[in-house]
Design a protein that fits this description.
Number of helices: 0
Shape: globular
Helix content: under 10%
CATH topology of the largest domain: Trefoil (Acidic Fibroblast Growth Factor, subunit A)
Largest sheet: 7 strands, antiparallel
Distance between the termini: 10 Å
Strand content: 35-45%
């Protein structure tokens, strides 16, 4: 799920990262009673009764005039309005003065929405939502903002046009393209504020250090400025990029373009190991060859789903796409997307993947390592070991919520949580993965197929890309991880469908 409704036609922007979302935000709004603002499917009625953020609880925040004036659009495509009597409806098809609200932010990070036309604040509980309060920043009109974007993203600084990434013991905003594991950023919602977490599960302190535990110095108020995000610390200063190397820390008390960030989807990036034990690489130029042992940026490829054809694009850090050439050769020289760039990924029982080219034939590595699509039916020589590179930690979200522990005292996992738990990903030489909790306890499949971090031995899993931002997770015994609305999370799925797909 993206932060906004912005679309990139099934592939990311030419910058090499995901599509930049600046036109609007997809968010959930939680009142002081812990309930989400909800737009009902029938009658265009709204209430504050949602217990979790699903489709009816997602609102698109759109700029409406000035920098801090916005409108709220429901999943039904209608805008929230108020009249002079404070009645709140959600029927308007277009934005006008009655649909405009200014945002005011409290010290604890919660937002208040004030009618621009009438000057009253929006709030209430249950079905009793009105825009009649003149008291600013009181509990009954304050809303916590829950970004609807998947928590694992790339952050791009608006002024520098560079991406944030981990560099040794700090975060720096100096990467042209978000490439590899270091560019993965996790946004963690805590008590109405957000923490910024690096790929090695550390928190960004406001002074620019990375620390192991979250506290007041690692939590930031989320602000909306002209479609972009600003993060304000507990001392009233904003995260920014400082110096020539863009060291990320809090410094200024006002917002300029240096303090603004766009949030972009983090596409999966992977390495392909051929039957000869060598990694596919672009080190030699445009020809793709399985001839490298070391893992560098030239052996990492970004995998992007094409929504229209349900095929896959494979992109290099040089912003070129894999493409089928005459004679069956595979090269990485295409700067534009054409049918010759559309590939299929066929997942095998042993966790490997066979890559089918646009000519209907499978890609193989020849004796010299060069890739060509000349094989009608895949054999072991056409199986590539797939290594997911940019998810050293992972957050999983299914159709019923996040994967997390049943309770703070439990070691059993459920799949309907409102907040996520971090999953550590450990790769094995055979292409399988171990999954662990933050304390390095391994996931284990029990005899009744439940998943727990209590017990031995550690269970092995295969990660298989299935759709845009969606994967399936299969046990070595062949069953998929499956979720139920009640929260049951078990390794007993037999086919790919909604309850066995996980946003990552």
């Amino acid at each position: 799920m993206s932060l906004t409704n912005g679309s990139n036609n099934g592939h990311s922007s030419s910058s090499g990262g995901g599509g930049a979302y600046s036109a609007g935000w997809n968010i959930g709004l939680i009142n002081s009673h812990g309930k989400y603002l909800t737009a009902e499917t029938f009658g265009f009625k709204i209430n504050a009764s949602g217990s979790s953020m699903k489709r009816k609880q997602i609102w698109t925040l759109e700029q409406n005039g000035g920098d801090s004036v916005v409108s709220l659009r429901s999943h039904m495509g209608r805008y929230m309005s108020t009249d002079k009597f404070g009645n709140v409806t959600c029927e308007a098809e277009d934005c006008g003065p009655s649909e405009g609200f200014s945002i005011e932010i409290s010290k604890d990070g919660r937002w208040a929405f004030k009618s621009v036309e009438f000057g009253y604040y929006f709030g209430g509980v249950g079905d009793n939502l009105r825009c009649t309060s003149k008291a600013s920043l009181t509990d009954d009109v304050l809303w916590s903002v829950h970004l609807a974007v998947h928590p694992q993203v790339n952050l791009r600084n608006v002024n520098r046009k560079r991406y944030a990434h981990l560099r040794e013991e700090e975060m720096h905003v100096d990467e042209n393209i978000p490439w590899g594991r270091d560019a993965l950023v996790t946004l963690e919602l805590r008590e109405g504020k957000y923490a910024v977490k690096t790929c090695d599960d550390r928190y960004l302190h406001r002074d620019g250090r990375l620390v192991d535990e979250a506290d007041a110095n690692t939590l930031y108020r989320l602000e909306f400025h002209g479609g972009y995000m600003a993060l304000k610390d507990c001392a009233g200063r904003y995260l920014t990029a400082v110096g020539a190397d863009g060291h990320m820390k809090s410094r200024n008390s006002t917002v300029t373009k240096d303090e603004l960030f766009s949030v972009e989807e983090s596409h999966p990036q992977a390495s392909f190991v051929a039957h000869n034990g060598r990694r596919v690489s672009t080190k030699q130029g445009v020809d793709l060859s399985a001839n490298q042992e070391e893992l560098t940026d030239t052996e990492i490829f970004q995998i992007e789903r094409v929504k229209t054809s349900k095929k896959w694009l494979i992109r290099t850090k040089q912003d070129k796409y894999w493409s089928l050439e005459s004679g069956g050769g595979i090269q990485a020289k295409s700067s534009t997307i054409s049918p010759s760039c559309h590939f299929d990924l066929d997942w095998q029982q042993n966790g490997s993947v066979a890559v089918k080219a646009p000519n209907g034939r499978y890609v193989t590595a020849k004796m010299n390592g060069q890739l060509s699509a000349t094989i009608d039916e895949p054999t072991a020589k056409e199986h590539f070991r797939f290594q997911l590179i940019n998810r050293p930690i992972m957050v999983l979200r299914g159709s019923h919520g996040f994967v997390g522990f049943k309770s703070t005292a439990s070691r059993k996992l459920e799949c309907n949580k409102s907040s996520h738990d971090i999953i550590k990903v450990e790769q094995n030489e055979d292409g399988s993965y171990f999954l662990k909790d933050r304390n390095n306890h391994y996931w284990h499949i029990e005899d009744d197929y439940f998943i727990t971090t209590e017990g031995a031995p550690a269970s092995e899993f295969y990660l298989e890309l299935q759709d845009h931002t969606l994967m399936s997770i299969r046990s070595k015994s062949g069953y998929y991880l499956r979720g139920e609305q009640s929260g049951l999370f078990k390794a007993n799925g037999t086919e790919i469908k909604n309850d066995t797909l996980w946003e990552f």
